[in-house]
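lol forgot to send this yesterday, sorry. C-alpha cells for the thing we talked abt
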C-alpha cells in the first residue's frame, strides 16, 4: 500500500470522526444531558465539539487534497507529525479519563492508535526522502 493511500485512508478516518461528532447531540441525548450543566459549561461543551468537527474536516481536507505536499515539504511533514500526535494524545486521554476496563473504551483506545499510525507511518516514511 502506498504512503499516499495511507494518508487518504487517514482522510476517511477523520471524516468519519467529523460525522460521529455531528451525531453527539442525538447519540448522547445532549439536549437533555447538557441541560443539567450551567449555561457556560453547556455552551463550552458544544463549542468544543464544533471545533473538533472543524479540526477533523481540516485533517480530512489536507489528506484528500494535499497528500503530496504533506509528504514532500517541511510544513507537510510537520502536519503529519502533529496529526499523529493529536491521535496519540487522544489515545492517552482515553486511558486517563475512561480507563481500559470496558470493551468499548479498549476498542476506542485501539481506534485512536490506528489514527496515530495512519499519520505516523507516512511521517516516518517521508524522512527517507
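and heres what i got for the seq, position by position
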Amino acid at each position: 500500500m502506498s504512503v499516499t493511500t495511507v494518508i487518504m485512508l487517514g482522510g476517511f478516518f477523520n471524516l468519519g470522526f467529523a460525522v460521529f461528532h455531528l451525531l453527539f447531540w442525538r447519540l448522547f441525548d445532549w439536549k437533555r444531558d447538557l441541560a443539567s450543566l450551567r449555561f457556560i459549561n453547556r455552551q463550552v461543551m458544544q463549542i468544543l465539539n464544533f471545533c473538533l468537527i472543524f479540526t477533523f474536516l481540516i485533517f480530512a481536507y489536507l489528506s484528500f487534497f494535499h497528500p503530496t505536499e504533506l509528504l514532500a515539504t517541511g510544513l507537510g511533514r510537520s502536519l503529519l507529525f502533529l496529526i499523529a500526535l493529536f491521535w496519540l494524545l487522544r489515545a492517552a486521554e482515553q486511558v486517563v479519563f475512561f480507563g481500559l476496563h470496558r470493551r468499548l473504551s479498549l476498542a476506542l483506545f485501539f481506534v485512536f492508535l490506528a489514527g496515530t499510525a495512519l499519520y505516523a507511518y507516512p511521517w516516518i516514511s517521508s524522512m527517507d526522502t
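The chain is about 85% helix and 0% strand. anyway ping me if u want another try
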